[in-house]
Amino acid sequence: MEFFVATFSMIYQFGDAFAFLVISCAGLAVIFGMMGVINLAHGEFIMCGAYVTAATARAGVPLPLAMLCGALAAAILGMVLERTIMRHLYHRPLDSIIATWGVSLIATQGVLILLGPTMQGIGTPLGGMAVGDRSYSIYRLVLFAAAIGLLASLYVLFYRTRFGVIARATIQKPAMAKALGVDTRRVYGLTFGLGAGLAGLAGGLYAPTMTMVPTMGATFIVESFVTVVVGGADIFVGAAPAAAILALIKAALTAWYGQLFGQIGLLIAVIVVIRIMPGGLSALVKRWQK
User: Where would you find the membrane-spanning parts of this chain (predicted)?
Assistant: First the structure.
């Protein structure tokens, strides 16, 4: 019985870590992995989604719909940011880093001034379940299923729809796409908005599990970048295996030595991957396919 409980606990922690890495990095992977824009305001889009989700849920909106409202609000803000600022900074990576960092600071301090240092949150739904002498949140299992569904949805969107084909063509060969009649500015705006919306969805999904504070996005951003860097340029080939490997490392070290060692393990894994495989796991997978 003790072996079963320990095994279940390990699998549960792995699923929880995997879901967190996938959900938190999806928006960053679209913006950074596909567009090459290092978005340091990623955490603030997550914060936006969480705040809107909590506010609408407390207003009586069903939680799933409140999460969609959070994602939509972040997507709209992302498209506004792309049109007003980011559109002028493509192919200027250092400038885009500074601009998004400035947006991050403005958003964090603006929320702090307008809404205060904390906001009333919402309770975690679905309750818990007992395995042995330990209790586990059922909602964490829902998050794992949501991560799998998110990966599948992104694959279908970018590889099985007209928008996906146009978006990939525009980002890879913008001059050719424009010559063929594609409105590249519109595609860039929609893609950036999609990435921001996915970040807002991450905030909405994790809003029931976190304290609502203006700096809550910082909880996500480090592990988001870690996952994207380890996964490599192709988010669909690299994101899932990167999240699985990093989740296994984090779950194992957390179970054996504590949360601090789990975070240290993630950073060491990034250093090793960058040193051995500068192109990330997606480059390795594509090399095997050849």
Answer: 18-41, 61-81, 93-116, 136-158, 187-206, 237-258, 264-285
Half-sphere exposure of 121 (CA within 13 A, CB side): 20
User: How many domains in the chain?
Assistant: 1
The whole-number average pLDDT for the span 204-231 is 88
Predicted TM-score (pTM) of this structure: 0.90
> Which domain covers residue 244, as residue numbers?
2-289
In this structure, what CATH number is given to the domain that contains residue 9?
Answer: 1.10.3470
- Within a 10 A sphere around the Cβ of 124, how many other Cβ atoms? 15
Per-residue confidence (pLDDT) for residue 103, from 0 to 100? 93
Please state, in angstroms and rounded to a whole number, the distance separating the CA atoms of residues 103 and 189. Answer: 17
Which of left, alpha, beta for 288 (phi over 0: left; psi -120 to 50: alpha)?
alpha
Residue 84: strand, helix, or coil: helix
Query: Per-residue pLDDT tens for 74-104?
Result: 999 999 999 999 988 887 888 999 999 999 9
The tens digit of pLDDT for each residue in 159-168 reads 888 888 888 8
